[in-house]
Amino acid sequence: MSRSGASSPRSSNPLRDARDRRLNRIAGPSSLVLFGVTGDLARKKLMPAIYDLANRGLLPPSFGLVGFGRRDWSDDEFVAEVKESVTQYARTPFNDAVWEQLSAGIRFVQGTFDDDEAFGALQECLEELDRDRGTRGNHAFYLSIPPDAFEAVCQKLSEHGLAQPDDGQWRRVVIEKPFGHDLESAQELNRIVEEVFPPDAVFRIDHYLGKETVQNILALRFANQLFEPLWNANHVDHVQITMAEDIGIGSRAGYYDGVGAARDVIQNHLLQLLALTAMEEPISFDAEHLRTEKEKVLAAVQLPDDLAGRSARGQYGSGWQGGEHVNGFLEEDGIPADSVTESFAALRLDIHTRRWSGVPFYLRTGKRLGRRVTEIAVVFKRAPNLLFREHDEAAFGQNAVVIRVQPDEGVTIRFGSKVPGTQTEVRDVTMDFGYGHSFTESSPEAYERLILDVLLGEPPLFPRQQEVELSWQILDPFEKYWQSLDGQPETYEPGSWGPASADELLAADGRTWRRP
Ligand SMILES: NC(=O)c1ccc[n+]([C@@H]2O[C@H](COP(=O)([O-])OP(=O)(O)OC[C@H]3O[C@@H](n4cnc5c(N)ncnc54)[C@H](OP(=O)(O)O)[C@@H]3O)[C@@H](O)[C@H]2O)c1
């Protein structure tokens, strides 16, 4: 067995066949140690997801949850904290019997990240869980903490023998984005983590990959015959990938300033969506095969030496949005008045492969935009011979397949149809698939899927270091280019779709952004 013990008897196929799907994938005896229990992510997403997994019968009866933090909490006080977060944020209804079983395995260890005594107490706590709850030495360490604390925690875990499993056991570490600030810092971060944990024990969470709609990109493309023959430069004109938020930065100024929209979202979520949309069919959905195909696409993104005209960036100004007057980015609490951090970024990327040569991929993300929406729009070329010459370009656009990642999850196909009447007028119509209409069960939260996969040791949905580095190699030149520009990013109206330069980016290619 490998040091990490990433040995699941099950296949690591993220798209299970119908027969397999009926067999629940239940985690084996194990415990999860959560660093950063008082943080937003732990309270709103992680602890509720753990409860939802328990409620769905996917955690073993012998599961342990250990919180590690600097609050002066007893086990009982921590249990009460977890209960509050579960009742407030869990997806599934509260069930007393499930809670009783889960809460019996909840412990709290108080301490800071450089505190040997606290890590000694953590070791004892895990030994007690192994002994009394039967967690069998299988432990996952979830670092829901700022990346500058990873080194201290990994070192202490190692010094206290917590990162090294005995035979037949496993130890895993889960890290959250951001995976560095640029290529160099990503490599340094990786060095720190992999000094203690072997590569197959490191689970990097990009929670977008845990979303059903994102996994459905693979089903849409590779389980059907309808789309794949058209999914190439012969038929596709361009691809637009959008992640828009209608809110501002809220209380995240401390994190966001100096990071910005491109590092926060494009480096991870949007480049993952690009890779899944553009990759070749993997020979299986095993982690190795899936990751290799994604990496090939990212490696094939080649940038011109001169990046002028290849990107746009902006900062939201103050104004009215949704009937409310909102602050501009530079007026937000904690943002310096001369900050050059962007709250909107758009890029044009070209993938130099036979399949995609000449097909631009446009990526955009921003805050305080018109709507909260994430989608991938594959826009097709016009028919080579259009008999309907009199068509109105505004009413009859280009055919498109739009994968709606969130909200209103589903897929839309847009095509032209004859308008009823005696004329030969053609207009766009849409065919919609919505998860809510086609399936009765609600989709699990991304974190439910990902935490379960960590406990099962199934890595396909977790990017490996190579993907992280390739993504920074794409983004770093844009960051350098932006730094070389004088002055602030362009201001855009709250509730709009970004700065004028974003429209110009596409207009230069004779195209326009979709208004989702
Ligand atoms: N929030 C999200 O939706 C989201 C999304 C993606 C990625 N992430 C990443 O996930 C991680 C957690 O995010 P978050 O939003 O939960 O952050 P957060 O609200 O700032 O929480 C950070 C946690 O780390 C603890 N912490 C920080 N420094 C510490 C120290 N020196 N010693 C002990 N504990 C320390 C804090 O404990 P105290 O309460 O004691 O300060 C708190 O529990 C971050 O790396 C973030 O970048 C978050």
From TrEMBL:
Gene3D superfamilies associated with the record: Dihydrodipicolinate Reductase, domain 2 (3.30.360.10), NAD(P)-binding Rossmann-like Domain (3.40.50.720)
Record flagged with keyword Oxidoreductase: yes
EC number(s) per entry: 1.1.1.49
Superkingdom to which the source organism belongs: Bacteria
Active site, UniProt feature: H269 (proton acceptor)
NCBIfam families from the UniProt entry: zwf
Protein name: Glucose-6-phosphate 1-dehydrogenase
Species annotation: Arthrobacter echini
Classification of source organism: Bacteria, Bacillati, Actinomycetota, Actinomycetes, Micrococcales
